[in-house]
Amino acid sequence: MRFLTKLILKILVLVLLAGGAQSLAQTVYVNQRRCDEGDGTLARPYRTLSRAVDNAPDGGTLVIQAGSYPEKDRLPLLIGKSGKRLTIEVAGGPVEVGRVYTERIAQLTGNSDPEGKPHINDTVPWGVGGVDLGANTEHCDKDGQNCKLYIFFGDVPDAGDGDLIAYTEDTNPEPNGFKLTPVLRGGNSGSFYPFTFRALDGTLVTTGTNETPTGAFSYDGKAYVFCYTSDQRSHLTVSGDPSQPNPFDELFELSSKFFQVAPLVVRNAEIPGLPANPGQVYGLIMFGHGVSECQGSDCAFGVQLAWMPLPPDKSQVLYYKGGSDPGNQWSPNEQEAKTLFSTEKRYWTSLSVGRIPGTGQWVLLYQRTLSETGQDQPIVARTGALPWELSDEIEVFNPYREGAYGRYMFGCPEPAFAYGAYLLNPYTRWNAAEQTATIYYLMSTGTPYQVQLMRSVIKMAK
Fold this sequence. Notes:
By secondary structure, this protein is mainly beta. Helices cover 6% and strands 39% of the residues.
């Protein structure tokens, strides 16, 4: 990561100008929060540093406005390659260069790609003209065989907002995405079987509008799905074979502090500070987004943390409350759950969690859209050595920085927006030599109402 302060830039300018005087020339502006390419003026700045450097005149001034810029080459190298003498100024806040590089691989759903890329899944014959989200888990049978990556999508408007289940057996998402196989209804209908669960009272519940799976995991040959319903509760459900058109069975509920749940199975002994007892080999870390506190009807929202030993048992759920006493950091009382960080008035955000192979570093992915600041917000990540010790936000997708508007997000800054970021953990890669993590994730775009497959390379902080 390279934060460019005015002090550093002044030093850079002195180096670049050594041996020659700066001539008088025009000022060129760059700002990644642009819907179009711009022309370098203050009113229409360039969107990328490379374009700004390419078009800046020798002896000119380059004004970099606050933001995160994806160029792999650092700014001094860009300028050095250009052979130009440039004065650099920073305006409006911190500038970050080169920590994250993001690309869209393909659109997974619908019947075509917005940029004409190869499109290997035609979901329309399944009754899925459009869909979003994509909580997922790799699931194997009890013997660890027949592994598939199951994806539990969100609302399908063509089918009463039922939720698609599909899976893939592809081990590599490159170069054009992966092939999906849907779970279809019985008979000759050809349409998808919507996610359904048998509630604790025996009734069958087929999730409807804004009722979706939020997180999934696999343990001991069974697939588990957390599902959000309109009463702002999360239902943990289970199936012995999610490839079949049969309902899941509800195990228990969590309340409004955990109505969006991102789960991850861990070996308890690998995570120092977990409250596991001897003999409890596996456990489940659960990040939950929901209500953190309310004053009357005015509620704030945030992310909380819980853990339980596996197999699942609600009576064994413990909530992280923090504190300086290592022996008293977990509570069976959900109301004592500490808010790890606030999401202000953002009443809903998808969460997903994973770990980077070879490092054990945690990655928590979520959206900032639907906050009070508008619909043009980024997808962000937090990382850390422990699930309760996470970094500040890292922008992994920014619709301006990635040039998404007009290419695969339509309407700038509305109605398109980026949301539903779900890590695809089996595909995560670590490059020890470069200290970079490559993550693959699903992302919904609103307009089009489809699911995109994304790849981000993150330079990890030392």
